[in-house]
Design goal:
Helix content is 40%, strand content 13%. The protein is built from 13 helices and 11 strands. Bound molecules: pyridoxal-5'-phosphate.
């Protein structure tokens, strides 16, 4: 059980797959939101200049995180919105009569969206199932289903229910040979595992700032490769999609040359502003340092799993795993009870079905993870 001081420092917080924290986050987000309020509510005309500055810094920091060139990355409400923006921008003939490939462990929201779009856009949604009793979709099974009838493949880089990390080089090399558009949902790994949109080159990337980049909601992103931007005509468009948003002539609408064509109405600012402190902090630490700490704690959990005979839902190999370690709890032990008992002792985890999700990050300590494992051993 954690001491009061440990609890106050959040040492038992292991929910980075949901929301990322860092020391001092509350204070810094409060300060940023106070600036937002002061600038937004000032009785002058500086609001839009401030909004543009916030957006510029947000986008520049994100471009830095994933190696995206200028003009290729924009902000969205969330990951699903980013995905819809991209899919809704594809020419009808790209999708009609063809397949969209996705794995059975993709984030459900993307699947719900694809189901709805498949009916309207006349494509077949092909979901690669997980093998009986397994916790994630195997790369080789995804590849087996990926032929030249696949118009778009959405790869989930790191799964939210196992932390399995795909081998992007292998998947993308295969997908290129099929001529498919390739997109990657990097939400669960970005910020804790190095990622680069150019290695391997990806056609579109969707993500949010909420998790290992330690932001808040309302700060999703969409990256599109410059060559692909040109063939996209987003149906979700508006005055901000234009080279000059102040063209109000109905007959003179045109798309901006760069990623701005994926923008639509007045951009949101508060979520981006409140996400800046997390992005700045993550950049100051560096992903390698954050990952080293995360791996040390993750390995502790994996060792405890071996010692106690717990079933790992995550891969053991560090290179095949994102920032979390997930355990498949025995059916005889209800997961909600385990999560509640851990919480009472100061450890914050959650579950999806019988999968217990543990994601140690910057505020989590090794001592707390050791205690968590001991408590878990008692519960199981
Ligand atoms: C892989 C992945 N994609 C997307 C999301 C979130 O999507 P959205 O921002 O649309 O809610 C999550 C959230 O946990 C996720 O794990």
């Amino acid at each position: 059980m954690l001491t009061t001081e440990q609890r106050e420092r959040g040492e038992g917080y292991a929910l980075y797959h949901s929301i990322g924290l860092y020391p001092g986050k509350q204070r810094e987000v409060e300060a940023e939101l106070a600036t937002f309020a002061a600038r937004w509510c000032a009785p002058d005309n500086g609001q839009w200049i401030y909004a543009q500055d916030v957006r510029d810094e947000f986008l520049a920091r994100w471009r830095q995180v994933i190696g995206a060139p200028e003009g290729t990355l924009t902000a969205t409400q969330n990951v699903t919105a980013a995905f819809y923006s991209f899919m809704g921008a594809l020419p009808a003939e790209r999708l009609a009569g063809r397949r969209v490939l996705v794995a059975g462990d993709c984030f459900p929201s993307m699947h719900f969206l694809l189901q709805a779009m498949a009916r309207r856009r006349n494509f077949t949604l092909d979901t690669v199932p997980l093998r009986q009793g397994e916790s994630y979709c195997r790369d080789e099974d995804f590849i087996d289903r990926w032929d030249d009838s696949v118009a778009v493949a959405l790869i989930t880089w790191v799964s939210s229910t196992s932390s399995h990390k795909v081998d992007l080089d292998v998947l993308v090399a295969h997908g290129r040979a099929q001529g498919s558009l390739i997109g990657v949902d990097i939400t669960q790994g970005v910020g804790i595992v190095p990622y680069d949109v150019n290695a391997p080159a990806i056609d579109f990337v969707i993500a949010s700032t909420l998790k290992w980049l330690m932001g808040v909601t309302g700060a999703g992103v969409l990256y599109v490769r410059p060559e692909i931007i040109k063939e996209c005509t987003p149906e979700f468009c508006g005055w901000f999609s234009q080279p000059d948003p102040f063209n109000w002539d109905f007959d003179k609408f045109s798309y901006a040359d760069d990623i701005r064509r994926f923008d639509h109405g007045t951009p949101s600012v508060a979520g981006l502003a409140a996400s800046l402190p997390g992005l700045r902090w993550q950049a100051a630490q560096g992903v390698d340092r954050l990952r080293a700490h995360n791996l040390r704690l993750s390995r502790r959990i994996i060792t405890a799993a071996h010692d106690h005979g717990w079933t790992l839902a995550s891969p053991e190999d560090d290179a095949s795993r994102g920032g979390s370690v997930m355990l498949r709890l025995p059916e005889s032990v209800p997961a909600p009870e385990v999560v509640a008992a851990l919480r009472d002792d100061g450890f914050f985890t959650d579950h999806r079905g019988q999968i217990l999700r543990i994601s140690p990050g910057a505020v989590t300590t090794e001592a707390a993870i050791e205690d968590l494992c001991e408590t878990l051993a008692g519960l199981l």
